[in-house]
Every structure is written in C-alpha cells, then in structure tokens.
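Aim 2, interim progress. The first record below pairs a target sequence with its structure tokens.
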Amino acid sequence: MKLRQWQSRCIDQAVLQLSPQSPHFFCQATPAAGKTRMAAGLALALLKAGRIDLVICFAPSRQIVAGIQSTFADVLGRRLDGAIGAVGATYTYQAMPFLDASFWQLLDQYRVLAVFVEIHHCAGGDPVISNRWGQEILQRVQDRATYTLALSGTPWRSDERCIALARYSDPHGTLVCDYSYGLEAAVRDGACRSPRIVLLDNQQVRLELQESQARETKEFGSVGCLLRESPVTYEDLLHHEDIMVRLLNLALKKLTEVRSHVADAGGLVVATDVEHAHLIASYLARMGRTA
C-alpha cells in the first residue's frame, strides 16, 4: 500500500533525526490519519538500514494490539506476535508490569525500536506523579531501547500531568512534537473527513406521570426542558425503546443514502456500557441489520 505524503515525510524525518544522541521521536497525528502504518513504515526503513534488530509495541487495548500486529505484518512481511520467526511482539500497557526480567533484557541484548501507541495514556516525566504505565516506561525502556517512537492523536492528559517520553517547552509549557499532522491538514489531504454533528431535538415532548390515582400529562418544548423540569434522566432517554428505534431508523436512512455513492460505508453507534451496546444491537437485529 502506498504511503500518504505525511507518512513518508514523517518517516524520512525520523530516520534522519533518530540517533544515539537523540533516540526518542514523538509523532502527533490526528485520529485515523494512519499512525500505525507510518510506524510500520519507519520500522521497515530502520530494519532495511540495519539499524535495529527487533520491534516491540505497546498499546492501551487488545483490539489495538491486534490491529498493530495485522498492519506490521502487512508492511514488514513478518509477524509481530512474539512467536518463533517473528520480528518482534506487541503487548498492552496493562501487561507491562507482568513482563519478567528476561523480557526487559532484550533491550540490552538487541537493538530495539520500542513503539508506544496512544502514549498519552502514560503519565511520565516525574517518577513521583507518573502513573503505573508511565513508571514502567521511565524505569525499563527510556534509557535502554535503541530508539522509541511515541504516537498520539490527542497529546494531552485531562489531569494535566506530563506524558511519558514527551518534551515540553518549559515545566508547564507546550508539548514539543517532532512531527505534527493536524485534523485541518488531514481533511485538506483527504486522509480524514470533516466531522459534521447534527443535533436532534423534539419540540413536542409529552410525559405521562402517575400520581396516586390520577394520571397527569405534561408537555415540554425540548429535550433539555424535559431533563431540567422533570424527574426524567438522560439515562432514561438512552434506554427508551421508542426513542432508540427512532434514532436508529434515522441513522440507517442516512447510511443508505451515503452507501449510494460510498458502497462500503459503515455506521457507529456509541453506547454507555456493554449492556447498552447489546440492547442497541438487539434493536438493529430486529431491523434486519447486523452489528
């Protein structure tokens, strides 16, 4: 697969910049821009140049780990599953504290490129305020890996702590990225699409309340008024069958329109938890759709 221009530029810059004196590279690229494929392309370039022996990747979930293994195998032509014959392995951040000493010795025995996906999950910079994952990186990887590649689509933390392997303009300053690729550029290049958010409301909400023996009907001019002026909660609305079916039907209608010119377009429904996701899937199944 041909690399996008930003991926090629980032790889070229990293190949030139990475050295024993500058072993860490931080890439910020907007979500869905293709960071994993860029990382695989960089690994391929370093392997071909004889600068590394192994690649080890860390990511925040098993789903992302599976995607990394698939992408790297496609680009490198070699597995990244840790089995015999593989060029490396991929692990979740959760697994880091449970890897034994023999694993970490690989960083001393081989020239290793360590890749950290969504590095903002790892708070670092100060061992005292680092989180568990950040501490593992600082103590076991930072000064031992031949090179590190840190990737993030959202390079900040809500708790305002520093990100592991990141540099800042001053102790409380701006994150310094070695390569940045923002949403505006990604939309301009066609790598991403401009997000369009549509708010749906109802100006004739009727709520029936049962008080003792009497039934009372109240009307509200919007969903916001309903939530402010009645005992109904947002969670109640998310689990209301009529509302969910109505919203899903609107979404399916729009998806059908999009598929008239983008045949493989897909839909995404965001649920509050696993139980809610299964409930939504059951509604879609009744509509003859798979999820």
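The second target in this work package is listed in the same format:
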Amino acid sequence: MKQVSTIGLDLAKHVFQVHGADNEGSALFNRKLRRTEVLRFFERMPPCLVGMEACGGAHYWAREIAQLGHDVRLIPPAYVKPFVKRGKTDAADAEAISEAVIRKTMRFVPIKTAEQQADAMVLKTRALLVQQRTQSVNALRAHLAELGIIAAGGLPNVAALMTIVREAEDTRLPTAARFALAAIVDQIDALAIQIDVLERTIVTESKRDESMRRLTTIPGVGAITAATIKALVPDPGGFKSGRHFAAWVGLTPRPHSSGGKERLGRISKMGNPELRVLLVLGATAVLRIARNDEKARHWLKALLARRPFKVAAVALANKMARIIWALLNKGGFYNAPKPSPNVVAT
C-alpha cells in the first residue's frame, strides 16, 4: 500500500472526516472519525502534511496534531471552496482540503498559541459587552421616548435618562414602567463596570508589552487597537510589505479589471472587520483634530481639501496599517515627520 503523504481534515464538533492521499495525489482513504479517535489516528500515521480550514477549534487541533510530528497548515475556507467538485458533504470537503493544501501558491493562516487566543478572547468579550450595553441604551431610549422623555445623542447623555428612572418622585413614569426600566438601568451600570475592568486590563498590558507600547506611539492607535493587532496578527513577517498588510486588512480598492482596462472600486473589506473598524476610527479621530489645527501636517490638510472626509479617513487608515507593519517588522518607535520649512499650512 502506498504511503500517505497528505491528509485533509474536515473539522466538526463530534464527527470528523479525513481524506488521505499519496505523493501523486491519488486518494487512499476517506473515512469518518469520532472526536476521541482523532489524536489516536494521527499517532499511528507517519509524519505527513495535514491541511485544515481555519475555523473554530482549528488552532487547537493544529497545535495538538503538530506535537505528533506532522506538518499542519491552516487554509482560509474561501480558498478551499473552489476545490469542492460538487455538492456539500464532509467527504467532499476533506478531499478539497487535501487538494488545496499542496498548492504552491496557496496562502496559509499562522497557527496561534493558546496565549494569543486568550488575548483575542479578552477583546471579543469586551466587544460583546459593548454591544450589549448599546442594545440596553437603545432600549431605554426607545421606551422613554414613548412617554415623551428624550435626551441628546451620545452615551454621556444617557445618565440623565437613568436618573429619571431611578427618581421615584418623577411622576412622568408609571409604576410598571419604572419597575421594568430599572432592570435595564441596572444592566447598563453592570456592563459599564465590566467593560471598564477589561479596558483597564488591556491598557495595563499595552504598557507592559514592548510591541504594543511601540504601536501606541502612532497617532490614532490606542491600547485597544494595539491589543487587537497583537492578537489577530501573530506573524507580521508573513506579509511581504506594508501594502500587502493593508490589503489583507481590506483597506485597498477592490479591482475589477479586464481587457486592459483598470477599474478600481470601493475598499475590499477583506480580513478582520474589527481591526479595520478600529483603524478607520483612529484615522477619523486624527482627521477631526487636523481639520481645525493650523499646525497639522500639510498632506493631511491637502487630503481633506480634495477628498470627502470619510474617503480621507480610509486613506489615512491605509497609511496607518503600513506604518504598523513597518514598526512590527523593523522595530523602533514612530517619529512624526517634521514639517518642511518651505511648506505653509493652509
């Protein structure tokens, strides 16, 4: 029997599918495995190339299987889909993974450590709590608006609404409404405390970690953005240049060219949406200050003069992404360029 050289592993919660192939790509087996049988199966296999889709649980299985002597590689699911011949079955998916992993031009996802996954969990937990707080605030605003009680936009102005709910002498609220809305107000306070604890932890870690401390010297990059970059970009050296990193984040135009005609559309929005949103928000904050600052860099002023504000924010976010890549790969801190003496800010 020919020796197995490549295995495609289709992950699941309980029932896994493995597809084995030899050096010539001929299929040797395609079978199901229970969750408890996976590691025992790979223990009996000779060292080979193992491919998996980069999905939930993939990093855990990649670490466990790699410890058994196998070469494990994670593939973005979108790059596996073209290799599925027909239909959607576990056997077809495992075969497609086995074919995709041996492609020389295939791009792979770096395997994260347990610590890197833990850092990402902190950020995801914070994002979840922020979303829940926003939902609670919107519910409080909507219910009070039905009774003719409104407040200006923004989170700081919600405190006035919360005071009305807790003020027992305020006759604008019926007893039943006050009882129900008091639960929402308490939830907003509890979520705010939990968010504050997580943010303090992230800020403390950003001051302790050297890479995060260097990233926060970039205008528009704070502790949350630096922590997100550290958790989601475990191997910045995997990108050839800052342009490749900015394209991976999704801050470059989507090309749609044919017949020698170059057409560039809106940004591709590829990569992680949380990181892209943080970079755009940081760029927006920088531009808001530069718009009214006479000492702001000339190219920022010129960019705002010839492009809409949001377009300028995306362009600055793209530049920030390239600076981040440079600091992660070349070290050092960000030094703001000095204005030229021949340039007068307008």
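Confidence is low (pLDDT under 50) at residues 341-346. This observation will shape the mutagenesis plan for the next reporting period.
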